[in-house]
UniProtKB/TrEMBL annotation:
PROSITE patterns, A to Z: GP_PDE
Alphabetical list of SUPFAM superfamilies matching this protein: PLC-like phosphodiesterases
GO MF terms held by the record: phosphoric diester hydrolase activity
Alphabetical GO biological process terms: lipid metabolic process
Every GP-PDE domain range: 33-256
Species lineage: Bacteria, Bacillati, Bacillota, Bacilli, Lactobacillales
Gene3D superfamilies: Phosphatidylinositol (PI) phosphodiesterase
Keywords, in A-Z order: Hydrolase
Listed InterPro entries: GP_PDE_dom, PLC-like_Pdiesterase_TIM-brl
Annotated organism of origin: Vagococcus teuberi
Protein's UniProt name: Hydrolase
Length: 264
């Protein structure tokens, strides 16, 4: 009889431990999903490079960002700037260069300019990609083609600054997550009326309790950019932001964990 009670006690204890582990895993997953690694871990490694993406993923990020520009040959490359000068010293627009010319460029850290296909080839479906169409409508066909070719609809959050771009993409990929980069709170409130917008993103200067409430009441997610200081990240957490861009993935994860542990 004692042996039976002992076995039951051990089983119950094991189930309790397993339950705690599963709850903690779910909590960590929720925390990490809030964090968008802005151009990778770009506060520590060169932006939009494999080292920046690798480090963000090493820290545990599930979301790495790519800004897209288009070459003269119609290939999607990853760069925040439409001109190569800041990163490579070559004062030319990517749109005026062929693929061959862009492939020869090197940054000061000897990294080359990545194609979006290079990024997909390296990480495949092990992460999520937060992709911005820097040229909005002009890049839609190219974007749609590469998403189809790689079957990435479920692994992409697509960003644009125009509602028309997001509407067109949502019509092609109904399951894709869309994010509007709103220029101000007025544009954000207007986007609340669009059923094809899932996330509304604003600059940190518009990060207030009122705008978060307005976005949530419209059944949208509130996102902010770019949060790098402890003060800004803690503010986003306290206001109930659903996600945010940061150059410092590890810092954000630690602050999120600290906040979560305080309330559990």
């Amino acid at each position: 009889m004692k042996k039976k009670k002992y076995i039951i006690t051990v089983l119950l204890a094991s189930l309790c431990v397993l339950g705690v582990i599963l709850i903690q895993k779910h909590s960590n997953q929720k925390i990490i999903n809030k964090i968008y690694s802005h151009r990778g871990a770009s506060g520590e490694e060169p932006e939009h490079s494999f080292p920046a993406y690798d480090l963000a993923l090493l820290y545990g990020s599930h979301n790495i960002e790519q800004d897209l520009v288009t070459s003269k040959d119609g290939t999607l490359y990853v760069s925040h700037d439409d001109n190569a000068k800041r990163l490579t010293g070559v004062d030319r627009l990517y749109s005026d260069m062929t693929d061959e010319e862009i492939n020869q460029l090197r940054t000061s850290d000897n990294n080359h300019i990545l194609r979006l296909q290079d990024v997909f080839d390296r990480y495949k479906k092990t992460t999520h990609y937060v992709i911005e169409l820097k040229e909005n409508d002009k890049q839609i066909d190219l974007f749609n083609n590469i998403i189809r070719q790689n079957n990435m609809e479920d692994f992409v959050i697509i960003q644009a600054r125009t509602l028309t771009s997001l509407n067109k993409i949502k019509q092609t990929f109904p399951k894709i997550t869309t994010l509007l980069l709103a220029k101000d709170d007025i544009e954000a409130q207007n986007a609340c009326k669009a059923d094809y917008v899932d996330i509304i993103s604003l600059n940190t200067k518009f990060m207030t309790k009122d705008i978060v409430k307005i976005i949530h009441e419209a059944n949208k997610q509130a996102n902010f950019w770019t949060l790098n200081s402890m003060a800004d990240i803690n503010k986003a957490i306290n206001l109930g932001a659903d996600s945010y861009f940061t150059n410092y993935t590890a810092k954000a994860i630690e602050l999120e964990k600290k906040h979560a542990s305080f309330f559990h």
